[in-house]
User: What shape does this take?
Amino acid sequence: MRKSIRSKRHEMVAQAIGEQRIRAGFTQYEVARRLDRHQPFMANIESGDRRIDVVELLDIAEIIDLDVPALIGRLRATR
Amino acid sequence: MRKSIRSKRHEMVAQAIGEQRIRAGFTQYEVARRLDRHQPFMANIESGDRRIDVVELLDIAEIIDLDVPALIGRLRATR
DNA sequence: GATAAATATCCGATTTTTGGATAATCGGAA
DNA sequence: TTCCGATTATCCAAAAATCGGATATTTATC
Assistant: This one.
């Protein structure tokens, strides 16, 4: 946890991605590779060190089969 | 559009926000103010000069009453 | 055209991101 | 437990993006 953008909801996003990635049986390296990025890219996202925009979220979600609408629902219910 | 990473889908997000903001009757200044940001913040978002993370999108959507699930649906259908 | 409101642009200071290298951690096997 | 390979986390400096005050431009209304 290093950067400034730490909110409860940012944490939720990071955690949802990390958990679902593992559930789906991927390593950070594998997901990163599919996105043409490097492993630290995923590490930074999952640790919450890096912000993630909507388009990126959808790209990742598609790979790891993350339920984005459900995540958004939980985010909306959180302040 | 000045920065490097602009995709069709990023454009869609920017445009959806701009259009809905106007539809909802807000100025960039008003939305920015509610978010404790400055007017160029919204200008940069709507012009696609600035990426917008999921949490920010939800914050903005709540103010301008943007249908996020619908936007996401359109994003998923676009490559 | 004149004016005001709204939006876009400029730009330098600051912050964030990047990714190669490497360290630390985890998991399974023997 | 110890070893080993796989996975994840951390470091860091260069590159890129963001910030916001000031200002320019556009738009709307008269």
User: Anything to note?
Assistant: DSSP finds five helices and no strands in chain A. Chain A has one domain: 4-77.
